[in-house]
Amino acid sequence: MIGLQRFLDALHKHHVEFIVIGGIAARVHGSARITQDVDVVYGRSDENVARIVKALAPFKPFLRGAPPDLPFEWSVRTVKAGLNFTLRTTIGDIDILGEVTGGGRYEDLVAHTVTVDALGHPTFVVNLEWLIRLKRAAGRPRDLEAIAELELLQELGAKKS
Amino acid sequence: MTLRTSIPSLLREARNRGALSQRALADFAGTAQSVVGRIEAGLTSPTVETVSQLFEAAGFDLKMEIVPRQTVDPVIEAYKPGIDRTLLVENLRRSVDERLRINAEVQLFGNELRRAMRVAEGTP
């Protein structure tokens, strides 16, 4: 389960540059599907890496699926050395992505976001059109039904406007 | 919408937003009114240079980008009839916070069911 409120509180408190994508973004756009984790694209500047490391540190991030005895240090050095991390934390599963297939990096994707007031925070969420593109680009069979639902949401939105 | 089909409507929109007649736009761009008229009617395939000049004359820059071609995926289409649209309409009526809170509540319920299942099966 994701402690989404605590997650957003922490990221905003530390002024982290991030964009919500994945299942939570789909929920924001009206999806009826339940998601178990949160995916964000984060800025890779030195300052932002330091911010996200500090923001998530209280939640004891560890590599999801890794053996418990694997040495892993949640630090600026670790995040700078890697790019995309699938993490298990005390508030749930969190994927932080320095780059996403079909969407690029934070700087590329930020132009394709909407700002929504999510749990008390103005938050960048990838827009519906680009969420569909990202899911198509990911090419995962399990996303096919999700894409179908997102396209229906797009049609419903078009009819509304 | 392809570039070929979008140019006429985009040019019309740019001209209208600039409050210009076809003749005025043509004058600003140094061309003839008939050129503007034929492009807006989709009767001609203008060069990129001509299109750029017309948009600039209307006070706009025409920005192009490449995007993955949107193809109809039969697998995705096959899923659509099975999706409950009423749930989507209902969700769209909710605020973003409500949509997120419901997600959390269903997650909690799922976790509780899994915990109860483990207890029933006697597994840790």
Could you characterize the architecture of this molecule?
The complex is a heterodimer of chains A (161) and B (124). Chain A is of the alpha+beta class. Chain A has seven helices and seven strands, in the order H-E-H-E-H-E-H-E-E-H-E-E-H-H. In chain A, a hairpin with a 2-residue loop joins strand 6 and strand 7. With 124 residues, chain B is mostly helical. Chain B folds into two domains: 55 residues, lambda repressor-like DNA-binding domains (434 Repressor (Amino-terminal Domain)), CATH 1.10.260.40; 48 residues, no CATH class. Helices cover 66% and strands 0% of the residues of chain B. The longest helix of chain B has 26 residues. Classes of the chains: A alpha+beta (161), B mainly alpha (124). Chains A and B meet through helix 2, strand 6, helix 6 and helix 7 of A and helix 5, helix 6 and helix 7 of B.
Helix-strand makeup class of chain A: alpha+beta
**Strand element count of chain B:** 0
Number of DSSP E strands of chain A: 7
**Which whole number gives the mean pLDDT of chain A?**
94
**The top level CATH class name of chain A:** Alpha Beta
What is the helical fraction of chain A, as a range of percent?
40-55%
Largest interface: A-B, 31 and 27 residues
In oligomeric terms, what are we looking at?
heterodimer
* Overall outline of chain A: globular
Radius of gyration of chain B: 27 Å
Give the ordered list of helices and strands of chain B: HHHHHHH
The CATH architecture assignment of chain A turns out to be: 2-Layer Sandwich
Give unreliable regions of chain A as ranges.
Answer: none
CATH architecture of the largest domain in chain B, by name, is: Orthogonal Bundle
Number of helices of chain B: 7
Strand content of chain A: 15-25%
